[in-house]
Amino acid sequence: MNSHYSVAVIGGGQAGLSMSWHLRQRGVDHVVIERERVGHEWRTRRWDSFCLVTPNWQCNLPGYSYTGDDPDGFMLGAEVVGFLEKYAASFDPPLIEGVEVTRLRRTPQGVFDLETSAGRISADQVVVATGPYHVPAVPRIAERLPSALTQLHSAQYRNAAQLPDGGVLVVGTGQSGCQIAEDLHLAGRQVHLAVGSAPRAARRYRGRDTLAWLDEMGHYARGIDEFGDADEVRLRANHYMTGRDGGRDIDLRAFARDGMKLYGHLRGVTGVRLEFAADLAASLDNADAVAEGIKDAIDRYIDSAGIAAPAEARYVPVWRPDDSEGALDLAAAGVSAVVWATGFHRDHRWIEVPIFDGRGYPTHERGVTGCPGLYLLGLPWQWTWGSGRFAGVAQDAAYLCSRLLAARRQRFTDEVSWLAGTPTETYPQVEWWAAA
Prior knowledge:
The protein is of the alpha/beta class. Helix content is about 30%, strand content about 20%. It folds into two domains: about 5-135 and about 345-435, FAD/NAD(P)-binding domain (3-Layer(bba) Sandwich), CATH 3.50.50; about 135-345, FAD/NAD(P)-binding domain (3-Layer(bba) Sandwich). The protein is built from eleven helices and 21 strands. Strands 1, 2, 5, 6, 7, 8 and 21 form a seven-stranded mixed β-sheet that branches. Strands 10-19-11-12-15 form a five-stranded parallel β-sheet. Strands 16-17-18 form a three-stranded antiparallel β-sheet. Strand 13 (about 205) and strand 14 form a beta hairpin. InterPro entries: Auxin_biosynth/cation_transpt (IPR050982), CHP04046_FMN-dependent (IPR024000), FAD/NAD-bd_sf (IPR036188).
């Protein structure tokens, strides 16, 4: 590595690579520092049957889009890794893999100092593109479970065969929890599922993928500033569905009908006895209401636009709980393992710049922080629904690049204002900045 760069991009996933593409197009000296390898998160934190929930046609990175023969399909994990590797090869970014940034500070002179596992470097500007999923979040209640019980986080789950024989308790029903519960269920395991408050959405409705309708309706173009509760929007769980086997709904009620045991959210542990809240019915009803609300919006759009779309009967619940199962005896039920599908914590302790709010969230406006020269990219709802996904990170990267270059031009103008009237042959970089 060099000792100094104009821009340091931290993180070599889809966000960091997208920013590098724009910087390379503008001829800006920069480096992309990746702790592991390109696509590391997709390689290591996904189960064997994992596939994207978003359709392939939404995979649009700067200068590179999905061009396969299945635009309405859903890439498997290995295919996602291949997609990112091919993207990197398409423009050869100044990427350094296997190097971790362990400390980021800003000097009194306004230059950023980066301590890395390969030595210290500095940069005029920094883009943090490490995403939000850093440390697996396992609740402290896990410490109270019997020591003989196998416990792992969803990031460690690969397949049913890695778990000991017996029943499996899955805690959490976001996208990962629901898909892992389905994976275990299809493998013939007895699944006990602690249901949370995540909403669901139908995979298809009235002849098209639901996401295709929402995209056409402009839903994914809505900026976070259009929501009155922006902070809460950023914290909401994603709607659960799956792209498995060509894509389908995830219906927890159907799982229960077919033998899966559903409970409310986990609230207590006493020995081998688990206590659950009596909120299962409410959680299922709320998830269904969200899914039906999305269909209502699609119906209104179809009607207003005069689109000829096939009619479709609405969802009818196939199972209803009575909330009588508020407890689970692990030993009596033969449960041998627990999968915690409880999300991730952010870990920004290495960033020693005061940009965080009281909850530890990095404050920003469309990725521009209050610290001059420091930018964020790839966060969920950084600007739109697609900000942390293949669907919208390209737009965010383009915007941040324009802001970054504008700041560079302004800083350069301020620093060389005393050169007024000096021939540009003496300082040829003036012409470059003017054109950037």
